[in-house]
Amino acid sequence: MRKKLYLPKIITFMIVLPVFFGLFLHTGISPAFAQNETKRVQVEKIEPVYVEKGKTTYLVTLRAHVTNNGESETVTVDVKGTDDKDHTLANVRFSGSIPEGLTRVLMEQFQIRGEDYENITSWTVKQ
Fold it and tell me: Most buried residue, 26, 36, 67, 71, by CB count within 10 Å?
């Protein structure tokens, strides 16, 4: 019975993967998560609308009033919850479909430690 040798495949993979990422970075194509969305959307208000308190974690629903100033209907807004010392305690990503030039309400639901939520003093758009 003959054994399969995986070493050549592993070596090939180790060579091809860095080359692929090197070409990806040098072509100027940025990944979707690296896009700067804050310039094409305007956020009016971010507020919690529902908080379900558990023993250690809370289930929180946040609402944001978002105006789409871009060309695409798909919008993404990264929001952070900070305490009075400007430490980030929560990160939330709002995403949805808003026609160009219109304002809509986007809502996201997430879980957070109760202690962290109680210390959040403001919700702002991440820069």
Answer: 67
